[in-house]
Structure formats: structure tokens, C-alpha cells
Design goal:
alpha+beta, 13 helices
């Protein structure tokens, strides 16, 4: 293995990174690629996909008790309710208890049919609509208007009487107390007029119903019978729409149970026939040698996900669904595609009709020529010069080059995936030792060590192959000891905690003094693969007792 310094590392612009989909250089910090629009990070793409698939449900809040505040305070409260939290998401919305919310009750005159809303005949019969004026009512209104005009003309024709002498002086009539009383009376009248004009109640208070908000944020309680119709806000006369009923919990439970049954049935029906070995979600990298950058992890995110099916006659590389902006499709679509492809292969139908987005076939002769191109015994023998371009601890196998393509294809594996893949090729195609002298541990290589303090012997993994175990998501490692970088002294983790070498947690182990050579201990760690919990023996004991 070589160090991490690469020939072209100094010539690489650190402010740019390659796009995972189109390999164009994109400025660091951008969320999407400027060329193809794909997300630069998998976690952001996954979050966006989940947000599109699972929109937040509509929640109707319970109605608080009605307050008797003035119209001015109610107006400010309704405005605060709309503007103070307008820049937050619905899931983060919480009503401040110090803010009072005005609730209006919609009367029958506040509703009318919306243009794009379908309403049944029974619902439409309960929604009052505007009606035309009859002929008798029109004549009566015309007569009233003529009488009012005559009375107004007579008042104008009468001579104006001379102003009489006031009973008291002007200074007394306009005194401070008198003006104050007049102002208070006008204020009371104004409040009464506003309060009376704001609400129009008919038939008493609405019991039950649902709470909706108009576009200006006024809270309105509406009867259940007006679901799906449109009304006018009693406060601002703006049109609003009453939502339809939300699905019942029983319907949701039945839908969930139906989905679980379909998933279980799909798992039972997955039978690919002669393709005894099926590997899911392997990474396929297409690399243009002229654009290759010898930099660690430069190709880590530039891949497509494929399934690999192996039979005694051939190997299939299957792209399950078409790759979109967010990647290779949802898990449900992928599972359904696997079931359809397995059924097609089991029935031995025409290969040209395999229901997959892409299919690449390798014959038995091509499978026998597969070889590991990373890691290799000597760095100069590899096109990658020993640089982990696919990611640290990843294993790469070169595939036959396709016709009319400038790109080379590589399948990359974790350690667990590679071991299973090598076993499948050995079983079906007698391909043994796929990567000779590559340094890949096909079996767990350990060594026996002894603790300096407790003289306890324990096994630890070879540090030369540790990077493969650390990069494998299916392997969990356990720290079992430390080794001095100078005198190679071994200390188990339990003894290190008792002796407090490097502190309680061992963070300062690199600068701690070795008890044998008094030099800095260093940071060489010893690891083991975490073993699964042993099954309990209670059933055996019960059987023996019976």
C-alpha cells in the first residue's frame, strides 16, 4: 500500500468536487449540480425523497374558549398569529399561550359554492345561495325610494329658522367635563357598532364543527355540513375553502396491513430459478481513464446501483429502475422490480424482455477472466497507483469493456460482499482465488497476544487488514487492547482502565508514557470482531426437565 500523497493532488482545485451523476466539477457547498441538477449529497437527496413521499398531515387544533377582548386587541392577535410564525414549517408551529386568537362563527349567509368543488345534492341543499328579487318586491322598493325623495325635497324648500339664543354660555357648554362625557359616549358607540357589525349570529352558537383559517389568518368555526364548500370570512369578506374530511384511522390501518401482506407475499414469491446467488445494491462505477483523478475518494460517489444475479451459465448486471433526479427510485419500486425480474427468469422467458431498466450479460468465459484491480500487490501494476479512489477499504473488480464505450466499468464491494461474491464464483464457475496476492483477507486473520499486567491472552485482528473491517457496514469492531509503538508492549483494555493509562477513556493514550520503555505509548489499537449474543439455554433445560 502507498501513502495518501498523489501525483496530481497539488494541481486539484480544493474548491470543486465532482458531481456523483455526471462527473462535472461543482463548487463546494452547492446543494445541486449546475449541469444535471442532481443532489451532491446522498443524505439531502434521501431527505427530499421522503419529504415528497410523506407530506405532513393536516391537523385540526381544538378550539380555545371564547374571549371578550376588544376589537382592536382581537385584530392584533389575528395578525400576530399569521405573521409571527409565517417563516416556520407546519410541523414546528406552536401557538404562543400569551397570544389570544379571535374566532368567528360562520353564518349561513357566509357560504357559497366554490367553482372547482364537487358537492352532492344533499350538501347543496343546505348551502344558501343568492336569489333574484320578485316583481312585487321591486315595486315596493321603488315606491319607498320615491317617498324618501319627496320628503327630502320638502325639507330643502322650507325656510331655515333663525338660530335661537343659547340657554347658557358657549364656554360653559364646552367645558372639560362635558366634552369628556361626549367623547366617552362616542367611544362606547363606536365599540358597540364595531362589535355588532363584526359578527352576524343566526341560530345561536355553533356547537361542534371544525376550525378553519381564512387567507388573512382569521379563525372561523364551521359546521360539518359545509365540508368541501367555500365561504366568506365574517371579518374580512375574503373567500376561503372548507377542507373535506380526513381519512379514518381504520382505513389507514387497513391500508398498512394490506401493504404488509403484499410485502410478505412478495418475499415468498422471490424465486429467480437457476440464479442461485443474487446480490442486491452493488456499486457499479463507469470511469473514463482520460478524466480520472488520482485522489482518495474521488470516485466514491460516482456510481450506479445494480443487482447481480449469477447462474451456472452467466452473470446478469441488472439496473432495477431508471435513475432519476433523486437516484435509483424508492425501495418499494426496487422490491417490486426484483420480484418481476425473478419471475421472468424463473419462467425462462426471452432475455430481451427482462423487466429491468438496464441489463448487462457476462458469459461463463468472461466470468472466468474477472480480476481484482484494487487493491494490488504492487501499486505500479494498477491504473489507480495504489490510491483508494473508490473509498478506503473498498475492493474493485474490473468488468469486460462494452463496445462503443470509452469508459471502463468496475464493481466495488465491501469485505463481506466480496467474500460472498468470491464464494458464489467458486461454487458456480470454479473461479478460485479471485484476487491473488492482493492482500484481501478472505478469512479473519488474528494473532494471539498477552497483556503485560494481567498476563491474560486474547486474540486481535491483524492491523494490516484493519481498513477493510472498518469500512464494512456489516462488521462491528470492539476495542480489546493497546500496543506501545516503541517496545510493542501489549495492554488489554480492561487493564488500561484499571491502570488509568491515557485517562479514564483513553483519549490521551498517544501521549501517555509506556510503563516499560517510558516513551510515548502511541495510538496503536487492537480490535476484535464483536460476537453476536449467544442464545439462551432455557429451552434445553426445560426439555431436559420434562
Amino acid at each position: 500500500m502507498s501513502n495518501d500523497i498523489t501525483p496530481d493532488e497539488q494541481n486539484t482545485n480544493s474548491n470543486e468536487t465532482p458531481c456523483p451523476l455526471c462527473n462535472e466539477m461543482v463548487r463546494v457547498g452547492l446543494v445541486r449540480c449546475w449541469n444535471c441538477g442532481s443532489f451532491m449529497r446522498e443524505d439531502i437527496a434521501e431527505a427530499y425523497r421522503k419529504m415528497q413521499e410523506n407530506p405532513p398531515p393536516m391537523i385540526f387544533s381544538p378550539l380555545p374558549e371564547e374571549s371578550d377582548e376588544s376589537a382592536e386587541e382581537e385584530s392584533r392577535a389575528s395578525t400576530a398569529t399569521m405573521t409571527a410564525y409565517s417563516d416556520r414549517d407546519d410541523d414546528d408551529f406552536e401557538l404562543d399561550q400569551s397570544v389570544s386568537v379571535t374566532e368567528y362563527e360562520a353564518s349561513d349567509d357566509d357560504f357559497q359554492l366554490a367553482g372547482g368543488v364537487e358537492v352532492s345534492e344533499q350538501e347543496s341543499s343546505t348551502i344558501p345561495l343568492a336569489r333574484e328579487e320578485s316583481a312585487e318586491e321591486a315595486q315596493q322598493h321603488a315606491a319607498e325610494e320615491e317617498a324618501a325623495e319627496k320628503a327630502e325635497a320638502e325639507d330643502e324648500s322650507k325656510p331655515k329658522a333663525a338660530p335661537s339664543e343659547p340657554d347658557e354660555d358657549h364656554s360653559v357648554a364646552t367645558g372639560g367635563d362635558v366634552l369628556l362625557d361626549v367623547a366617552l359616549q362616542e367611544e362606547k358607540e363606536e365599540k358597540r357598532r364595531r362589535k355588532g357589525g363584526r359578527r352576524r349570529r343566526r341560530g345561536g352558537k355553533i356547537e361542534g364543527g371544525i376550525v378553519v383559517y381564512c387567507p388573512n389568518g382569521h379563525r372561523i368555526r364551521v359546521r360539518e355540513e359545509y365540508r368541501g364548500s367555500a365561504g366568506k370570512c365574517p371579518a374580512c369578506n375574503v373567500m376561503y375553502l372548507v377542507p373535506m374530511g380526513s381519512p379514518k384511522a381504520t382505513d389507514e390501518e387497513s391500508a398498512d396491513s394490506g401493504a404488509e401482506k403484499e410485502a410478505a407475499a412478495g418475499a415468498e414469491s422471490f424465486d429467480p430459478g437457476a440464479y442461485k446467488h443474487w446480490f442486491q445494491n452493488l456499486k457499479l462505477h463507469a470511469v473514463d481513464p482520460t478524466k480520472l483523478k488520482l485522489k482518495p475518494n474521488s470516485l466514491e460517489k460516482t456510481f450506479t446501483t445494480v443487482d447481480v444475479a449469477i447462474s451456472p451459465e452467466r452473470m446478469l448486471l441488472l439496473g432495477l429502475v431508471k435513475a432519476g433526479l433523486l437516484g435509483g427510485g424508492s425501495k418499494d419500486k426496487q422490491d417490486k422490480a426484483r420480484i418481476d425480474i425473478a419471475q421472468h427468469l424463473r419462467e425462462e422467458k426471452d432475455d430481451a424482455e427482462i423487466p429491468a431498466a438496464s441489463v448487462q450479460t457476462l458469459s461463463a468465459d468472461q466470468i472466468s477472466k474477472l480480476k481484482v484491480v484494487f487493491p494490488t500487490m504492487y501499486d505500479h501494476e494498477s491504473i489507480f497507483a495504489g490510491v483508494p479512489v473508490f473509498g478506503k477499504g473498498r475492493i474493485a473488480i474490473a468488468l469486460p469493456k462494452q463496445e462503443d464505450s470509452k469508459e471502463n466499468q468496475y464493481l466495488t464491494f465491501s469485505l463481506t460482499e466480496y467474500r460472498k461474491f468470491a464464494e458464489a464464483l467458486q461454487e458456480l464457475h470454479s473461479v478460485g482465488d479471485l484476487g491473488p496476492d492482493s492482500g484481501i483477507p478472505l478469512t479473519d486473520e488474528t494473532r494471539q497476544v498477552t497483556c503485560h499486567y494481567s498476563e491474560e491472552q486474547f486474540e486481535a485482528l491483524e492491523n494490516e487488514n484493519l481498513e477493510f473491517y472498518e469500512a464494512d457496514p456489516e462488521i462491528e469492531l470492539t476495542l480489546v487492547g493497546r500496543q506501545c509503538q516503541g517496545c510493542q508492549l501489549i495492554v488489554s483494555e480492561d487493564s488500561r482502565k484499571k491502570e488509568r493509562i491515557g485517562g479514564k477513556t483513553g483519549k490521551a493514550i498517544a501521549k501517555a508514557k509506556c510503563p516499560k520503555c517510558s516513551e510515548k505509548f502511541g495510538n496503536i489499537s487492537l480490535w476484535q470482531i464483536k460476537q453476536a449474543d449467544a442464545p439462551t439455554e432455557e429451552p434445553q433445560e426445560e426439555a431436559a426437565a420434562s
